[in-house]
Amino acid sequence: MSELLNFNYPPEPAVDRVTLFADVILPLPLPKLYTYRIPFEMNDEVLVGARVIVQFGGKRVLSCIVADIHENAPAEYQAKYILDVLDDTPIVTAPQLKLFKWMADYYMCTLGEVINAALPSALKLSSESRIQLHPQYNPEEDKIPLSAQEEKIIFALQNNQALTFTEVGTLLQAKSYHKFIKSLIQKEAIIIFEQVSDKFSPKVVKKVRLSEHFVQEEGMLEELFNQLAPQPKQLDVLLNYLQKVPVHQDLHLNYKGLEKSVLTSNPHLSASSINTLIKKGVLEQFDQVVSRFPVDHEPRQLPMALSEHQLQAKDEILGLFKEKEIVLLHGVTGSGKTEVYIDLIKHALESGGQVLYLLPEIALTAQIVTRLMKVFGDKLGVYHSKFSDNERAEVWQGILSGRFQVVIGVRSSIFLPFHDLSLVIIDEEHEASYKQYDPAPRYNARETALVMANLQGAKTLLGSATPSIESYYNCKTGRWGLVSMTKRFGEAQLPDIELVNTRDEQRRKAMHSHFSGQLLTAIEERLQREEQVILFQNRRGYAPFISCDECSWIPKCKHCAVSLSYHKFNNELRCHYCGYHERMPHDCPACGATTLKSMGFGTEKVEDELKLMLPNAEVQRMDLDTTKKKNSYQQIIADFETGRTNVLVGTQMVTKGLDFENVSLVGILNADTIINFPDFRAHERAYQLFVQVSGRAGRKGKPGSVIIQTRDPLQPIFRKVRNNDYQSLYEHEIEERMRFGYPPFMRMIRVTVKHADEQVSENAAIVLAKDLTDRLGKQQVLGPEVPYIFKIRNLFLQEIHIKLPRENTNLKAAKAQLAQAIFNLKLLPDFKGVKVVADVDPV
């Protein structure tokens, strides 16, 4: 690669030929595309949407995506040559490039940031600084004075072609090794270069098969048996192979061979005998590229026959699709929306199109994938962040090749290279999990999926038991179609909901820690009937914070303006914003007292206390702490589905779309913290959460109950939840939002100003807010104000909210004004180190 850095293409002969240039998307936050010259011999190789290698700046070598090819040389700089081409065919499709450009424009970020988020890491190139001997330097002849550390490096380079910076540090056993590298560069003894390597590697398995002549030539197999008779261990290997691969029945089976691990893992076979047969040429060893996903070529199950109610909903959806591009399916929990989705997917595939099925949580994919795999077999691809880089790259390549016609995944699935999309399904469309917060692009997968579907001429179906106010408004105003499913599937009824006043319970001393007497009794009754229970607590960890009983000291995060949460399992205090953690102290650092108490409770404490109160119950927890490993979601859900777990305690993960037929009780432990949150969507979200988690109870004809613990049972939201009265919620919320100017009547942009110095952050926000007010008007700009959490990761925050009327507003022009105001702010000497983040459509 060092040769690439110094590569000079020979002068081109004076003949008439076209000189082409390529605009590329570099994986960097650059406002503009960068232009490179295409070497003449690569004119036919460089394609829009393919990856090429370029040198950017003095030393960096990067891979990037070709966005355009033309004949116009850049006027501002001399275009460098493209160094190499990585792809024979584009890995980014034309519709994708259009979508990425829309995202960069709408969400006020750069194309480089979009590409960074879109491409799986395995399809990017890794670039690591390495050193090698200078081509002009001869250690034997050039007697340059070197220190002992420098001599070590030179000696190592004489025996190795190159060393990474990390390897140099290990060699010298020193953290501060860069000075020695810098010194050797100045002495022209070494040079730095970038080694670039494509990280995607297909999965390869070692296989063995009988050498061809033993199978093809008559009598050779019998002769082989005779030869191996004196070697019983080798004969055992051969017999075992033939048992697994019956070549006498079908000669072609031998060509496919057998995974070597099948033989080596057999304790009755000798590993040395297997290798001896390979050396003798009896067995032939070869590598085969295989899929990282289990292949089920034939679907094992036909889609379920739809009920009359489901069939009616499906027909209504297809009817509306003839005149509307977008339809909302508003179906109560347990109404059987998934079966309708499956039937619509089948309909789309029969028409030859591709389908994207979006879900808000990885936890949901674990259960639904099993159902879809039985119907669609190896046409189904799965895409989410718990997969390895190579697994995600394989799904990407599988869509390009046409292997996967249906993809189910979370928000990042909208980046996949669909080229013939005909249907997009967005399940649980109301979920805030569809929004990406950090880093850029800060996109909403629901909104982006609508644009993607529009670009590809696909239809979009959104589904929810509790639609977002904005989506329902679009239906009510006629922009979208609306289909309702008001009955649960089969004989199932909506659960009975009981409110428990914990204030009264505490006064009567009837609370058992955080459990009311009613809830604890109800759990015991369900366990006796061998039924299952879900308990919802919207906070993970053991306790939100700890406090000293004597002096009221509370441990705070060193980097954020929040208290540290106590996690008992690891015996540590942890910040849920930046990840900082420290050991749980034995005594108070402020006064020395040993009376440290945990305050409040999270899912870990609920699990702990329940195991003490109900020692015979099998309790499991599902939250961010217990689902860090790749397959932890699937394992927790499988344990609950098969009855190995009686009680499932969880955060919002347990509220969304999970279907367990034996759950007859749901408990909501602390409803008040969800309702009383400083956000204009607080009541909408509380209703959605309560209805969604309540919907986990009473499936498959089994009567269900929900117990909600609250200190304020007269709160109006509970009446709406008990009556399953979404219409009443919508009417109240839409009136409030119209009166006070919130979505869907206004577009919102939240601008966050960040700096390590609190005063600088405040001053910058004041200057920016004034500039924005001058540009957009006083009514459109609110703030600056200090947010609820005013310091995160050592940066102090200030927020400015921009409200733009949805009607009669040039959104593009308003964003241009915002971008210019941010640019002007950063030109001021006092604010050069200030970071400004614009979040379009915050949720």
UniProtKB/TrEMBL annotation:
Zn(2+) 2 binds at C557, C560, C575, C578. The keyword Zinc applies. Coiled coil: none annotated. Binds 2 zinc ions per subunit. It comes from the Bacteria. Zn(2+) 1 binds at C548, C551, C588, C591. It catalyses: ATP + H2O = ADP + phosphate + H(+); Couples ATP hydrolysis with the unwinding of duplex DNA by translocating in the 3'-5' direction. InterPro entries: DEAD/DEAH_box_helicase_dom, Helicase_ATP-bd, Helicase_C-like, P-loop_NTPase, PriA, PriA_3primeBD, PriA_3primeBD_sf, PriA_C. One of its GO terms (molecular function) is 3'-5' DNA helicase activity. Residues 318-485 form the Helicase ATP-binding domain. Gene3D superfamilies: P-loop containing nucleotide triphosphate hydrolases, PriA, 3(prime) DNA-binding domain. Its cofactor is Zn(2+). Keywords: ATP-binding, DNA replication, DNA-binding, Helicase, Hydrolase, Isomerase, Metal-binding, Nucleotide-binding, Primosome, Zinc. Residues 583-737 form the Helicase C-terminal domain. GO terms for cellular component: primosome complex. One of its GO terms (biological process) is DNA replication, synthesis of primer. It is an enzyme of class 5 (isomerase). Its EC number is 5.6.2.4. PANTHER family: PRIMOSOMAL PROTEIN N. Belongs to the helicase family. PriA subfamily. NCBIfam families: priA (TIGR00595). Component of the replication restart primosome. Initiates the restart of stalled replication forks, which reloads the replicative helicase on sites other than the origin of replication. Recognizes and binds to abandoned replication forks and remodels them to uncover a helicase loading site. Promotes assembly of the primosome at these replication forks. This is Replication restart protein PriA. It comes from Pontibacter ummariensis.
